[in-house]
Write a structure and sequence with these properties.
alpha/beta, Purple Acid Phosphatase, chain A, domain 2, five-stranded mixed β-sheet, four-stranded mixed β-sheet, globular
Length: 275
């Protein structure tokens, strides 16, 4: 069995299928691990969800911020972002089935038989891995529950951005969503910052990339997406960045885990605006 990990698809299904053809992917024997943001700015969000869902146990998904926003929009808590291309998805006959499937996806996954983890944005420097997994599981239970509408409505806000001050259940939930799906930089005191998207050399001095503040052991690895301006470049040992901005006319990146070989597919879509 080969494990392939792929960066933010954002509805770029044509590029994903081309990548899978490059490696002769077989969903019966291989696994496709997806770092979140399956939907939004690309041309085929509806068919992307249908395709990934059709892979069954061959697809291992974590939720990204765009996936959560889609769930909140479907639940009636947010308007459709004018830059997203979700009209056909939200009007689809099977939208409820797709949303129920999406809501069952976790925020962190661990690769089998090793200490390799995947989340959309990374891991907060204020957490141990054990703590991150525990809080991700609690948040997942909320989103997957019959009460998910309440939690989707309440997940928005930049506070809490400091785990030490997240005292209530709601604060802890919101911090978890922020850390695992929105974070890029942290302030010098390790609290989360949400506005900066540039690559590190272009960012103000009081901010540090989260991956420069975490301490993984030699046996631990982390895979993430979310940060297109990095273009797959992450200097931290054992941390792998996979968002290479396919939806912004760059390319989609896939990593074959056992030999760390990268596969890329240039964007096929010339119709979406540059971020």
């Amino acid at each position: 069995m080969a494990i392939y990990l792929v960066g933010d698809i954002q509805g770029c299904l044509s590029e994903l299928k081309s990548l899978l053809s490059q490696v002769n992917f077989n969903s019966s024997t291989d696994q496709l691990w997806l770092v979140g943001d399956l939907v939004a700015r690309g041309p085929d969000s509806l068919e992307t969800l249908r395709f990934i869902m059709s892979l069954g146990s061959g697809a291992k998904v974590v939720l990204g911020n765009h996936d959560l926003h889609l769930l909140a929009t479907h639940a009636g808590h947010k308007e459709v972002n004018t830059r997203d291309r979700l009209d056909d998805l939200l009007a689809a006959d099977d939208v409820n089935e797709l949303m129920d499937w999406l809501a069952q996806q976790p925020l962190i996954r661990k690769l089998p038989n090793e200490e390799t983890y995947m989340s959309h944005a990374g891991i907060s420097p204020q957490w141990t891995i054990h703590e991150a997994i525990n809080q991700a599981n609690i948040a997942h239970q909320h989103i997957a529950s019959s009460n998910r509408s309440f939690w989707l409505k309440e997940m928005y806000g930049d506070q809490a951005n400091d785990w030490q001050k997240a005292d209530s259940e709601l604060d802890k939930f919101r911090y978890t969503i922020n850390a695992l799906t929105r974070m890029r930089y942290c302030y010098n005191d390790s609290t989360l910052e949400f506005q900066s998207k540039d690559k590190p050399e272009l960012t103000q001095e009081n901010l540090t990339p989260w991956f420069e503040m975490v301490n993984l052991t030699d046996k631990q690895s982390w895979v993430f997406g979310h940060w297109a301006s990095l273009m797959g470049s992450c200097p931290a040992k054992n941390i792998y960045a996979l968002d290479t901005g396919c939806v912004w006319h760059n390319h989609l990146t896939m990593l074959r885990w056992h030999d760390k070989k990268l596969f890329i597919e240039k964007s096929h879509d010339l119709t979406c605006d540059k971020e």
